[in-house]
Design brief:
The protein has helices at residues 2-38, 53-58, 70-75, 77-86, 98-101, 111-122, 141-145, 151-165, 194-199, 203-214, 232-250, 274-285, 307-325, 346-349, 371-382; strands at 63-68, 89-92, 126-133, 170-177, 219-224, 257-260, 263-265, 290-299, 331-336. The protein is α/β, with parallel strands linked by helices. Helix 12 (274-285) packs parallel to helix 13 (307-325) and helix 13 runs parallel beside helix 15. It binds (3S,4R)-3-hydroxy-2-oxopiperidin-4-yl beta-D-xylopyranoside. (3S,4R)-3-hydroxy-2-oxopiperidin-4-yl beta-D-xylopyranoside binds at residues 93-94, 177, 261, 295, 345.
């Protein structure tokens, strides 16, 4: 018995040693790559001309816009001025989600959303609809009300009512948001959600068919995150999302595009790999789908406090990412998740440990353009034109 036990323990120790060794090597590489990337030195982001982001994007046949919330556009005239200057398309940040539109299973509350859509229309701006089917932002009544028997009807009524109301106005809908999460270990990398539990994987195809019927003009998007970096988590996600898109296209689901959220986490930014990203975008485009960056911002939580350094890092993240993404002809536009650091979800979702304000967006909190603005401008200026 004894020799066997010793052997086992030896084996275990050997195994542990090997794992630690491998981890050390990987960690070493990780630190080196991170250090190399963080050394942005005196990288500058010079721009030519006075044009806004909207104009620079439009010059290439691209759209630029931002997510906005109701209070921002009704209570902050100074902000609205910048919004109108910089943006061609707006995404209501929360106001088209179930929790805002559906006070009860039988009623709808459209006043706020209607006002936001009218705001955009009056200013000749386009609207992205976000989002028809998502596992979050479901109203409290949903869990008590939805059953496998009524879920399809519930979804149908919602999509019919909401997408029909804004038909002809909405440029593109995020029909299904965040349905893939390989870490949940479900078949096909599906995320464990109420929709999956209630209707099975077919809920995705169903939602797209309902949306197409309700609004034949809007472009219909599948939208998701963690698609950006050469790290294992994103690699798995890209593979599962691509496989989903392939299945949808093969079965004739009326889908027009992939929305890549593009929340760029500072920790992961050093692992952006242009070739990997190009390959993924090419694979998506080869299915005949369009691509939009739908929610870009840069999470600066783990970066140095020093403003000059931090702003340079944020700008570098934008430029490195967007210049690669915009090379792909299937990409039709970029939407940032906010316009100014004055209003960003990251202040509460990814605050800095040192308590300093986060600086993830093109304009600072006084509405002045930062290097991030220059970086985005440069990416548009260098992008190949879409229409000739
Ligand atoms: C976020 C909003 O910005 C927050 O205000 C809200 O509290 C939660 O949702 N991915 C998405 C968006 O698709 O809907 C999320 O928006 C951000 C992450």
């Amino acid at each position: 018995m004894l020799p066997r036990q010793i052997n086992r323990r030896q084996l275990l120790l050997f195994g542990l040693g090997a794992v630690t060794g491998a981890t050390t090597v990987a960690l070493g590489q990780w630190f080196r790559q991170r250090r190399r990337w963080l050394d942005v030195g005196d990288r500058t982001f010079p721009i030519v001309g006075q044009q806004s982001l909207r104009e620079r994007a439009a010059a290439k046949g691209l759209l630029y816009g931002a997510a906005i919330s109701y209070d921002e556009i009704t209570e902050d005239a100074e902000f609205v001025e910048q919004l109108v200057r910089e943006c061609q398309i707006l995404t209501p940040e929360n106001e088209l989600k179930w929790s805002r539109l559906r006070p009860s299973p039988t009623t709808y509350e459209f006043a706020v959303a209607d006002e936001m859509v009218a705001f955009a229309q009056e200013r000749q701006m386009q609207v992205r609809g976000h989002a028809l089917v998502w596992h979050r932002s479901l109203p409290d009544w949903f869990a008590e009300t939805a059953t496998p028997d009524n879920a399809e009807a519930l979804m149908r009524e919602h999509i019919e009512t909401v997408a029909t109301r804004y038909a002809g106005v909405v440029h593109s809908w995020d029909v299904v948001n965040e349905a893939i999460l390989p870490e949940h270990d479900q078949p096909n990398g599906m995320r464990q959600t109420p929709w999956l539990e209630l209707l099975g994987e077919g809920f995705i195809d169903l939602a797209f068919r309902m949306a197409r019927e309700a609004d034949p003009q809007a472009l219909l998007f599948y939208n998701d995150f963690n698609l950006d970096f050469a790290i294992r988590q994103d690699e798995r996600k890209r593979r599962a999302v691509l496989a989903l898109l392939e299945r949808l296209v093969a079965q004739g689901t009326p889908i027009d595009g992939l929305g890549i959220q593009g929340h760029l986490s500072g920790r992961q930014v050093p692992f952006f790999d242009a070739e990997v990203m190009r390959g993924f975008l090419r694979d998506v485009a080869s299915l005949g789908l369009k691509i939009m960056i739908t929610e870009i911002d840069v999470i600066d939580k783990d970066w140095p406090a020093d403003l000059a350094t931090r702003d340079r890092l944020v700008a570098a993240a934008y430029e490195d990412y967007l210049s690669v993404v915009l090379e792909e002809p299937a990409v039709i536009g970029v939407v940032s998740w906010g316009l100014s650091d004055r209003y960003t979800w990251l202040s509460s979702f990814h605050p800095r440990d040192d308590g300093l304000p986060v600086r993830p967006l093109p304009l600072d909190d006084t509405l002045q353009p930062k290097l991030a603005w220059n970086a985005i401008a440069r990416a548009f200026d260098h992008a190949p034109p879409r229409r000739l």
